[in-house]
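Lecture 7, part 2: worked example. A protein chain together with zinc ion.
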Amino acid sequence: MQYLFCKRNFYFKFFFICKLFLFVSIYSFAQKTIAITIDDLPSALPKISLMHSVEINNKLIAELDKKKVPVIGFVNEFMVAVDGEEEERTEMLRKWVSKGLELGNHTYSHTGFTTGNFHKYENEIRKGEIITNKVLGEKGKKVRYFRPPFLKIGSTVPEKEKLNLFLADMNYTLAPATIESSDFVFNLIYLKAKVQDDTATMRSIAKEYLDFTLNRLKFYEEVSEKTAGEIIPQIFLCHANDINADHMAELLHLFTNEGYRFISLDKALEHPFYHEADDYIGNEGISWLLRHSNVEDREVFFKIMPKVKPKIRKEYEAVQDNQFIFLLEERIKGASVRVWLLFAFLGFIILLVFFFRVLFQKLNSKLNFYSKFLVIYINEFETGMNTNLINLKNKSIL
Ligand SMILES: [Zn+2]
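Predicted complex, written out as structure tokens:
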């Protein structure tokens, strides 16, 4: 009986462990995955100063490092090779690499691939890897991925083939994207609000961006199920800008809240769907999923795809000239001047307190002396004796 009981116990434990193992395997297999990619390093807008750029990069790196998200950043080296600032800007890239983050090529000056410019495009790719390769080379690595600006990879089959051959020749892997949520639109309005210290607008536009990202994520899940038959490992595209730097924690939370686990681009691209040739003919930079949809489905998807609200689009168009960014730079410089003024003021107050303390000590000692002198004088005047008064005068005590 005892033996039977033990045997039953053994079988019970064995089946329990098997069930647990099966559950864990199914769960980890079914969990959705996503690779985060950040374009336009070191900063997405050309008028952004070095100081502003450093702030954006530091915030992004800190949050990604804290959550250990294996991100890849795609560099535009024209924003690194800035006269007089190249060393500091290169240092920002070094910081990415020092935290184990990957860097890729995004052309030298963010040039899109259009018909007839292939020669220029090739040069842009060659020129766009020099500093990045130097930085990666210090860690024994080299640039492996190419992200085409505007996701344009050629309008025709021969153009696409030409680019693929060139990239293969350069040992590059094309980095596609499945989801983007127009962060650049929200960012410009956010930045303008930041310049004006309008925290209410900053908060509301950040919320609009996060809500819109969630809508786009759900939309692309549908596209993925219809096109690939499952939710494939997603590749999210966003930019090195203020709205992402200030709200990366919420953005990452949005994905984990939807059941996603973060993976590297390497890992995402292992899925066979990323190795299928697309038959999309056109010059639009569209999601890898939409490139692989059939023509009828694609038209439906374009119609039902969540769009940026017209009010936000209008605001974005109104501030697109970026002139206000200069105001932001002035504000940042103004803020640092204010910090120095505050230090100077505090120093002055400390000196003032010290001065008055010494002064009061001196006065106090003088007052002490004269009050004692007066008391003795009155006392001796009344008694007719002046011995103590003479002593006090001679020793100048007290
Ligand atoms: Zn870009």
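Residues 39-40, 106, 110, 149 surround zinc ion (CB under 6 Å). The mean pLDDT is 87. Keep this in mind for problem set question 3.
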